[in-house]
Please model this.
Amino acid sequence: MSQAFLSRGLSVAAIAAAALLASCSTPTPEAPPPPPSVTPPPPVALNESVAQAASVYVAFVREVGSIQAGFPDAESIQAAIRKGAAYEPGQLSRGMIAYGSILALQSPEYVAGVRQFATDPAQRQQMIARIVLDPAYAATLPGADAAAGLIVSTMGKDIASLTAIAEAVEGDAYTIQERRDPRRRWAVTPIANRDARLQGAKTLSVTQLPSAEESARLFAAANSGSGLGLTPAQHGAPFTPAVVNSLAIAALAALGAAGDDARTNTDALTTESNNEFCLNMSKLMLFQCLAASRPSYEDIFCTGRHIVRDLAACTAQYTGPAQSPATPAVTVTASNSTPGGANN
Model:
């Protein structure tokens, strides 16, 4: 009996010793929780409607940029007027803003700055909703200065080129009146069928078809972020409302939210009243100028002032004043007289 009691005592002691050892051992650490899943953002997506709108503006600027001073005959002046009158102000304004959005998408800083917020699906949806509700939010996102810089610098080259052409054409309206200029004989002759010429310019003020080739080039550049060969530049706030809309379209595209299913949003953002007003006023000034013009040299002035210069001025109004106190802002000019005294 004492042996059995001793055996039970040893068993209890062994269990107690094991329990003591277990309480003194280092516990096995628990496995860490898995990291939160990161959802890759959808690819950059901009619909073809925006590229088509931009192509109209790009093609028109190219056409107007081909107008040159030194008209050899009266018909060449009329050809320039037909070329420069062939636009609908609302469509051209929308194209300008659309083109700005594609330029903004060439900024890797802006695209990356926006896309960093797109890995969380909920946050991405919140950003999309906020940009649609308040486009100005897009101008506060990282890289906005770099995107705006591409817009302002690229379109600034067009502004400078068009302004130089305008000055040459307007100057030619005076040069051609000089007695030593062999063109003077026909330049001072009253224009035949003045009313038909004016009506023809009005008839040309209709919606233009987009360039298929230009649309494809811009569409590819927008969705790839490359292909236009732009030089990086910076342009800080404040931005014009039209540039803000361009940045908003680009931001939605960077979030993958400007594809074909989002045309309602992008189409709305290409509309901006101040931008469109400038081009509407330019077209009205052209009609008034042509209505008052009699000899061909006055038509030259109308071409330089209210086709070429006003296009440069409205583009400059879109980009906003240069960030230099030494550079005055360009505004649409409503001249009170053409060379020779004809009112416009």
